[in-house]
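MODEL INPUT / OUTPUT PAIR
PAIR INDEX: 1
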Amino acid sequence: METLWKDLRYSLRMLRNRPMFTAITALSLALGIGANSAIFSVINAVMLRPLPYREPERLVMLWEHNLKTGRDRGRVAPDNFVEWRKNNRIFEEIAAVFALEQKTLTGAEEPEQVQLHQVSANFFPLLGVQAALGRVFSQQEDLPHVVGKQETPHGDRVIILSHGLWQRRFGGDSGVVGKTVELDGESHTVIGVLAPGFRFIDQPADVWTPLGLDPGKAYFAAGFGRFLWAPAKLKAGVTLEQAREEMKVIAGQTQQKIPVLNTGFSVNVLPFDRQVAGDIRRTLLTLLGAVSFVLLIACANVANIRLAQATTREKEIAIRASLGANRPRLIRQLLTENLVLAAIGGALGLLLAFGLVRLLVALGPTNIPRLSELEDLPLDGIVLGFTLGVSLLAGIISGLAPAWQASKLDLNGTLKEGGKSATSSERSARLRSIFIVAEIALALVLLIGAGLMIRSFLRLQSTDPGFNPHNLLTMRLLLPSHAYPAASNGKAKTAFFEQAIKRIEALPGAQSASVISMLPLGIGGPLTTFNMPVMVEGLPTQEAAAIPRADIRMVNSNYFRTMGIPLRMGRDFTEREISDEAARVIVINETFARRLWPNENPLGRRVRLNRADNPLDEVIGVVGDVKNGDLDAEVTPTVYWPHHSWAFAFGTVLVRTTLDPASLTSAVTREIHSIDPGLAIADIRTMEDVLWRSIGRPRFNTLLLAVLAVVGLALAVVGIYGVMSYAVSQRTHEIGIRIALGARPPDVFKLVLRQGMALTLIGVGIGLAASLALTRALFGWLGWLYGVRPTDPATFIGVPLLLTAVALLACYIPARRATKLDPMETLRHE
């Protein structure tokens, strides 16, 4: 222990005496360690931290699996949920959640749109969640009633508030339990407030109400589709595989009992943590691999600096060896110095990681699950332990080779007056060359990955969404059911929107206005999609899984003109068709037309939407394809439907303007509230902003990988510059002799430049070979690239040329300096 303490004191003294060396190496390590700790913090929050539920390892999600399409995470039909809960022997509980419905909350303040989840009474006990104030639902409050209405036979309407809504709407009033609030004009009694931060599978909700599912009702026969989430809890000792096997049996039994609903469907059982993390796992693991490359480059840089420093300390080390220090003792001392450096770099890296995590949370897209948890706890004990481990590993990796090399001395040659160990210098030069080649190769892999991502993102950004997003204002409205009752068959809602559109179009700067049930690109509404089966007239009845499906969008008559969607065939809706129930007409997109009637004219064809007993709808027009989901996803078959248009409580108003769209926000809001002051308006943004937000995750991935690649490039360039500068300083005597014997400056310049570029080209060659192997495997696994091949020629030619050019500049400065050496001065100095 005393020897270790002496080693530490000696190391600190040596580092203090070389402040520039200490600063450069510590900062190099800090970059690598800090970046690794920041990415690991995100991985820890998303994938490693235990879920905030009781016994999360026993929690699973049940999904319906469409065997025809391969979609294995489909919502659950209520009829199947009832059968699964009744017949299984492997789950303690199966709960039901109906998410993504919204209501209007009214009171003393402005009306507000709130996200509502309807849940079965066993939902909160299944997760082990207790109310922070009050209580959760009782079984009595979850008795059967009409789905979508919070009415039990006892007339009770109860509600649980989220902590966020309680804070912002009720000021954190501890007496809120027992009070009544109004949702869509109906009074509800507050029975509880949940703890802060609770959310279900990263789906935010403001309020919870009982679902009231009726186990005796045939929901599918009544026209209900698949709309439930089904979390479940395994019984103690039951494995995931056992659950999957039993659920397959139960799914087979349910198919025999309700064949029209379940033919072609099975069940999928997923661990809860996998459900929460989703596809972000691959992204985070890839980014961790990328920052590991940065750390390796930093370690190689530090190793090179240590090798150069060891050459200047040869005599010191030789004296220590001659006084009795054996080789393990010397290696331990030199490694101790490097570990102290790594500790300093780790401390600086921790500070850097803290800032980077804050930046990641600020820049990260909203669809990364659990990322918001880092706002309160960016660096916990696990992250601190990881940083410590990475620091130790970096210290050993960057210090072992220099320590081993420095301890291999020719004592006789080193201790001679003015002498140097030529063998040691040669070995050191070879090691430095190896490290430089490794740095260049690693940097090239990062740069090619970033180059592919940048080209992919630029392609994605230039993708035509199918409409004109410029000068377009959007805002989401929610029409409360008490003021716009379903009993009117949507006429009250249709009348409201017709009046609102006329008033908005009369505003100065408004070119046209329209309304749609759900905005394209999966943003701007409580649902990202509304999908229905489509039954074509004249075709035989198909099993449920084989029936083609289409996204349904409900629009008014000038929607296509307002959005700038081209009409390819036929015509648009008329005003009469929008409001007249008897007019059974639809407009479809090109993809729908190609899939159902390839090489045929779809105009005049008729289909039934959703149910086989629904009336037939006639195709009157075909419009251009629009990206309803992600911008990089395939276009889905889409039906634009005027019927029952506003039977839904929500709709997005769009305004095409001749001015800056944002400048009309106040005027449009004022016109809407002049018709109905009680309406809640949300998500007011331009369509360009919607488009920008829709590519948030690809932009985030590209930005991170590009930043890491630039850091790796900078470290590699600094490394090659340092090595070449040191090489020039070591060869000063040789260069002086060459000049004295007649070597011209261009000859000296070529000599130095050739050495540096040889190392660069070897590193580029190795990096290209590694990149060809990695990019095909990695991007094929990730599915990140859009419109760009993993072996894109432009990237694989351009990036190596860029790296070579930058390395050439790093070699140019030392080479230029070598040509200016005075031979008399160098020889006299030697």
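PAIR INDEX: 2
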Amino acid sequence: MGEVYRARDTRLDRIVALKILPHKLADSAEARQRFEREARAVSSLNHPHICALYDVGQQDNIDFLVMEYLEGETLAARIERGALPLDELIRFAVQIADALDRAHRQGVVHRDLKPGNIMLTKSGTKLLDFGLAKAAGLSPMTNLSSSPTESRPLTADGTLIGTFQYMAPEQLESRPADTRTDIFAFGLVIYEMAAGQRAFDGTTQASLIAAILKDEPRPLDQLAPMTPPALERLVRTCLAKDPAERWRSAHDLKIQLKWIAERATEVLALTSAARRTHTREKIAWGVALLLLVAVLWLGMSGVRSSPQPAVPMRSSLMPPPGSAFLPYQFAISPDGRRLAFVGVGADGRETLWVRALSSSSAQQINGAEEANYPFWAPDSRRIGFFANGKLKIVDSAGGGIHIVCEARNGRGGTWNRSGTIVFAPNFVGPLYRVQDSGGAPVPVTRIRHQESPQAHRWPYFLPDGVHFLYFQDWSSPNDAEGDGIYVASLDSPEPKLISSELTGTAAFASGNLLYVRDRFLIAQPFDSDRLETRGPPVPIGEQEVEKDLAFSKSGFSVSDNGVLVFQSAADSPTRFVWFDAAGKELGQLSEIGYRDPRISPDGRFLAVSADDYRNGKRSIRIYDLKRGVSTRIATSGEFPAWSRDGKQVTYVDVAGNTYSMEQIPFDGSGSAQTLLKGGKMIPNDWTPDGHLVFMSFGKGAAEISIYSASDKRASIQGPGAEAQFSPDGKWLATQGMQGEVIVQPFPGPGGIIQISNAGGAQPRWSRDGRQIFYIAPDRKLMAAAFDPQYKSASAPRALFQTRIVSPSFVLFQYDVGPDGRFLINSFSSNSSAPLTLRIGWTTQHKP
């Protein structure tokens, strides 16, 4: 948009580029003001890949810019000689993306990004003319972009073709341009570097505009066969017609480009990792190299068709530095080459990661924060997951995130080759089916009893892509079909029971049904045509496997060709840890496998659900905090709650489809007494006068119910979850159905007082009843002062960042002692608990 001269700065004795405002714009006051204002904005972009702006001013009524003088050639001139090599392309693209990221963070949008505005120098790329496309107060179709700096081969005299070649659809339609406009142009630049030709072309302005607005460019792999699929997808996402479907930021683009570059050097990463000094890591990566060979062999030959058995191998997979594996939240790809998993960082955030088994490092998926329960598409490329109440899809090799449909509390999904996803949108209710392209989901299983809390979870397609396994849980006494593993079909709502003795996740691989029983991973021959087992179950190895009994999710995943990943109970990443109110760690319990902590009223004892009784269920243990010893008081049960006098412990047990609320002396001096029987129930807390608040489950929702010890009856209080009474029993804190912590008077009447303001769960009272604690979505432990006299609460404040297993609905994972200390089931600050990888187990478990 200006005339540029080579000049000498006589003060600093250096060569500069001097750019002046053209004479035709010199009389425009607005143009001159914006010329200076935008120039000052560009001057703040101090970046090695942005052409530096040294000065701006006016002399003899001529506005000028003093800029860095660059020696080299434009990217446009380089492309005239043909497409760029991949390594050079990616190196330049990363530099351009980094420069764009800096500009966008400073609020500067280029709006005229094209090869002619990118200079190639000895030090790398340099971006020119930042911000100047917005400098003139002209209409969008005749703005300053249509009069670019005179530099061959940009815009031919008298035409606008050169400018339109790199305009985004919103620019052509006179809509506002933002950072996503630059991302569209960036995609065009990469396309041209890879293909050696422009993505869109036309013989006239009208035909060119029509092509940009409606057509898709020719696939890169047709023009440049060696183009990596990940780069193809990156460009395709940049060139989405709708700005909302493009990459969110230039920073995301830079990360993806670096990932593409790193994938070409994965073997070198293994070699580097093997040179680490830590002995265990040396051994692990040595085994990983062998596993890589085995994985590649499996991928080429296939377990089923190979006449030679695979050599059994075992290795450990470590989490990324500073992160921990979230229990039960990982999935091996169908081809056995990559692992998707959810990692928890030091900031408490959950993020989706992907790691190639041939690599020593994992790649974080941008935009997949708060992800849960990932599962793969049959192409071993795309990943489904649940986040923010939605079922989403992301391409693991690069690309935007696609929302498929609503899924409030997703509990597992599976994907067939026809693009059908079967998933559990909630922790209760039936399974649904939906196409991966989106649409309205429809039920594919059914809950026969209308008011049943029954839950269908963890579906898994069998090889035909029509039948699928799933686990049925929380069945009530009124349900004709009880808990167990079932197989259903896309063609029929009638399920077939596989086993009522099995609980939790079931999968199929290499002719075997895989599941966890008594905490051991089991393989049992299974006829996928007749849909029945046909041989005895055999344990796979001797390690106990983690299992979430709250939602019956087992900690293993298996590929189509038998690559197995599981989470050993011995490698459990969580412990009960003591903290003070400032977040200082004060110590921890050495025992593992404890859940649902409840400290006795006097602070002497701890009641827990323990995983030490091998019948597929938990037991109730009392841990003496002073002596460090524990005693089992109930051989089957979970979710303990103390009576206010500290003499009794209430818990829930299940037999068949019937749940029973039991109460037992804490010292084991008597037998358990049944308080209540029915469907799924979870005791929470007692009042001093004998009212028990517990969670019950109606159709599709959790409810707060109250049991009265005096009349031995229960009634529903209302929707909610995770409740606790104040010490005097006059107030009840719960997580409301809007996801916020609330307080209400008990037994009422009275209004609701909202405690949290940005989501919260697991409310607890201080022992003096003057504070309410809860867990925020980012895992921070929050506190709010409560004044019962004035029925008010203060604004919540953060006490400290926890590493609690989950901030959402998984019931109480912490408790508050009488002395104000917090006992939290949490990841340790340096958690590095691994996952276990096994290959070749099928040689010992032939169906």
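PAIR 2 NOTE: Confidence is low (pLDDT under 50) at residues 135-162, 264-285, 293-310.
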